Amino acid sequence: MTDQNKVELLAPAGNLEKMKIALNYGADAVYGGTSTFSLRIRSGKEFDMESYAEGIAYAHARGKKVYSTVNSFPFNSQMKLYENHIAKIAELKPDALIVSSPGVVKIANRIAPDIPIHLSTQANVMNAMDAEVYYDLGVKRIIVAREISLKDCEAIKHHLPDLELEIFVHGSMCFAYSGRCLISSLQTGRVPNRGSCANDCRFPYEVYAHNPESGTTFRLDEEEGIGTYIMNAKDMNMASHIDEILKSGVIDSLKIEGRTKSPYYAAVVTKAYRHAIDDFYANDFDAARYQAELNTTQNRGFTDAYLLSRPFDRTETESNEFSIQYGTHQVAGLVLEDGLTWKCKDKTCVGDSVEIVLPLDATVEMVDNDIGKIEEIDGKYWLTFKKMRSESGKEFECIHSGDLNNILLPTKLPGYTILRREIAEALENKGLTESSTPMKQEQAVKPTSKDIK
Q: Which PROSITE patterns does the record match to this protein (predicted)?
């Protein structure tokens, strides 16, 4: 187990900003890397070696850890490239290397013997025999397959008590065994095991019947309400089961998926699971509290996946009616790291009130001045804008998403504080009808990229 036998909370770090946000909102450790040999090429491109080094230094200065992803599968022609990349990453002194291939485990042991090796979920370890093979190769931690059961985790831990086990508790799920899907490769040439999955399982599909003798093709109409998202897995959400997981005593790290997701996701999901973990140890666990926050994020519908139920026992893990839906809230703005100004993420006008979401254990000063008013109402903090004034002194009646001006705050707030509003208000500001608003998780609301930032 980690320090004081307390489970580790591991959050995604898609870029430097999201790394800092995850750490400020309660992560004990983060994972990510540059695009080279990572299974998240798009997010990895937001890190170069310089910014990644800065992120590692930022984490270490706060007593937190960074695990570097080198988890794609190599071709013969890439062996030397892998060696060079691992050597460069090792110079930055991350706290572990996450790899998928036995061959890369051997390379990492040789090139960076002082850095612990974590085996990626891409290796799909589900039993003690496979775990032992990797343990004998020098792997310190195994990120087990999403399809594993808690009972099998207990069996592995019983067989290999010194081997650390890490499980996913939240985020996107793969239609196949994690990453072992060729649909994206077939349709777009983007290979999941090379880090460039196009998420083809999230698309709607039409079904046809073809008669080769007559050359006739018929489109098959599907039952109304069933939908055509036939391969779209719901998002994992294990927050209500954190108490069961921790009571087992066999899990060392709880992992949140989502390096390509938004800064808001990184903040809110990390904070929700931080509270779930801390509340468990304080004998104050309340699943409803954490679910209320998790429901504020965009999602594909939620499922508690397979840790407590076998895949063949489940019938509700796919979201057939929609690919993505609104959460209950929309981000209005993000406070910059210095805490003095904020950037607009959703149209906000003079007179608007937005909820203040603070980093973990942060506080806010109640003020009332010419810029705005901050007050506490029913246990939540609210900011009402009286003026929209930029650093340069220019004033606005409204600020729109994408505006590059840094807007002044009525008082200094903790860096990366989030400003948000309920989705109904956000949609109304966009001129959309309230009928578009999802009031329940089951509703099939499909936002476009221009609707939600």
A: PEPTIDASE_U32 (PS01276)
Question: Does 446 score more than 50 pLDDT?
Answer: no
Quickly tell me which residue has 């007179």 as its tokens. Answer: 351
Q: Are residues 293 and 334 in the same domain?
A: no
Q: To which residue do tokens 């009808």 refer?
A: 433
b/e burial code for range 401-440 (CB count within 10 A of at least 16 → b): bebebbbbbbbebbbbbbbbbbbbbbbebeeeeeebbbee
Structure tokens that stand for 118 in this block:
């974590």
> What single DSSP character describes residue 123?
G
Do 337 and 285 share a structural domain? no
In sign, the C-alpha dihedral spanning 88, 94, 98, 99 is positive
The domain that holds 390 is classified in CATH as 2.40.30.10
In terms of domains, do 351 and 288 share one?
no
The string of DSSP codes covering 88-110 is: HHHHT--SEEEE--HHHHHHHHH
Does residue 197 belong to any structural domain of this protein?
no
In the beta sheet, which residues pair with residue 318? 233
Distance CA 291, CA 285 (A): 12
**Which of 226, 236, 238 minimizes the C-alpha distance to 322?**
226
> Distances from the Cα of 108 to the Cαs of 17, 93, 188, in angstroms?
28, 13, 32
Torsion of Cα atoms, 162 then 10 then 78 then 74, to 10°: 70
Tell me the C-alpha distance between 23 and 260, whole Å. 16
Interval 6-37: pLDDT, tens: 999 999 999 999 999 999 999 999 999 987 76
Residue written as tokens 């187990």?
1
Report the pLDDT averaged over residues 128-134. 98
Contact 360, 274 (CB under 8 A): yes
The pairing of strands 29-32 and 8-12 is parallel
Alpha helices in 359-451 (DSSP H): 423-429
On whether both 361 and 404 belong to a single domain, the answer is yes
293 and 352 share a domain?
A: no
One domain for residues 10 and 80: yes
Which residues contact residue 175 at a Cβ distance below 8 angstroms, ignoring those fewer than 6 apart?
A: 181, 183, 201, 231, 232, 233
As given in the structure block, the two tokens for residue 124 are 């799909």
Residue range(s) defining the domain that contains residue 240:
3-177+235-310
**367-387 pLDDT, tens per residue?**
999 999 999 999 999 999 999
Say what the pTM is.
0.86
Task: Give the dihedral sign, CA 209/215/216/217.
Answer: positive
Listed residue (227, 235, 216, 107) closest to 171, CA to CA: 235
Please report where in the chains the tokens 């775990």 appear, as a residue. Answer: 131
Do 277 and 150 lie in one domain? The reply is yes
Tokens of 230: 């036939």
Is the distance from CB of 156 to CB of 133 less than 8 angstroms? no
CA distance 111 to 102: 14
